[in-house]
Design goal:
GO terms for molecular function: adenine deaminase activity; zinc ion binding. The chain has 326 residues and is α/β, with parallel strands linked by helices. Helix 5 runs parallel beside helix 7. The structure holds adenine and zinc ion. Zinc ion binds next to strand 1.
Length: 326
């Protein structure tokens, strides 16, 4: 119990958070009403009851549907504010949040509406909680290269407000190689690069993310552990893994939370971090994810401090700011 309190109070950064995945059912209902959007649920309880997934695609289908209530700037601001308020309560001092512009532009919501709303929430969080944040623009990998290039084009006026590009959505069948040219262009534009890889996809996808997308950080990365040479490479290069324990459990990437590989990652010398991914859908914010790792008994206070420290080391903050947080 002491350990839970210690872990909860550790200052931390969150590096793997889809802002659309922080849409709680209560806010979904409120926005549906405000925007007069019909949703296929009768109650908040019915929404929560639908959150039972057997794989990534199961989840994505319901996640994209939920995002339909987001229509105007104010909705994106309210979404971000709700997340930052919750994160601040978990001692999150800095967050690098993903957003999926294509989920919105494909419904006729402009890129500028999405970004303006999110930036308003980010400014408010800094003023209210001293919580700093950065934006990561994710391309939906089930869509084609041309659509990703169009999204990158829409981001051009906002380049000074976007830290990085990422790659998410359905992994298997959509390897990193599909976006090699888009990521090369993003790099030329001065953006950092991250990608979801090795969540459901094979170690070969992690190799591609390194060699073809030139990633600065690896999202999930669980299946890299199947390839010892890859593990050595990732440990030597100091690659940060943004690991999401409760997501892994809910999406059946693992069968049992007590068998989560994060302890193994640390022992292998990998720079692992703990994150919540889509907290409204997976049953917990970042402290719930840390707390879920306690019962297995494999991590001590020092390990948890390392995980929190890794979250700052793996962030895209400059070195002086990272030092101030450690
Ligand atoms: N989009 C939101 N959460 C995701 C995840 N865990 N994997 C891939 N795409 C996602
Ligand atoms: Zn994710």
């Amino acid at each position: 119990h002491d350990l839970a309190g210690f872990v909860a109070g550790l200052p931390k950064a969150e590096l793997h958070l889809h802002i659309e995945g922080s849409l709680e059912p209560e806010l979904m209902f409120a926005l549906a009403k405000r925007n007069r959007v019909a949703i296929p649920f009768d109650s908040v309880e019915a929404v929560r009851a639908a959150y039972s997934f057997s794989n990534l695609q199961d989840f994505l289908d319901i996640y994209y549907q939920g995002a339909d209530v987001l229509r105007v700037e104010e909705d994106f601001r309210d979404l971000a504010t709700a997340y930052f308020d919750r994160a601040a309560a978990d001692a999150v001092r800095h967050a690098e949040i993903f957003f999926d512009p294509q989920t919105h532009t494909d419904r006729g919501i402009s890129f500028d509406v999405v970004v303006t709303g999110l930036l308003a929430g980010m400014a408010e969080a800094e003023a209210k909680h001293g919580l700093t944040s950065k934006l990561i623009l994710c391309f939906l990998r089930h869509l084609d290269e041309e659509a990703a290039f169009a999204t990158l084009k829409a981001a051009e006026p906002w380049l000074d407000r976007i830290a990085a590009v990422g790659l998410d959505s359905s992994e298997v069948g959509h390897p990193p190689s599909k976006f090699e040219r888009v990521f090369a262009r993003a790099g030329e534009m001065g953006l950092l690069r991250v990608a979801h890889a090795g969540e459901e996809g094979p170690p070969a996808y992690v190799h591609e993310a390194l060699d073809l997308l030139h990633i600065d950080r690896l999202d999930h990365g669980n299946r890299a552990l199947e390839d010892p040479a890859l593990v050595t490479r990732l440990a030597r290069s100091g690659m940060t893994f943004t690991v999401c324990p409760l997501s892994n459990l809910k999406l059946c990437v693992i069968d049992d939370i007590d068998a989560h590989p994060i302890e193994r990652m640390l022992r292998l010398g990998l720079r692992a971090t703990v994150n919540s991914d889509d907290p409204a859908y997976f049953g917990g914010y970042v402290n719930d994810n840390y707390r879920a790792l306690i019962p297995a008994g494999k991590l001590d206070a020092g390990d948890f401090a390392t995980l929190a420290r890794n979250s700052f080391l793996g962030s895209f903050l400059d070195d002086a700011t990272v030092s101030r947080h450690l």
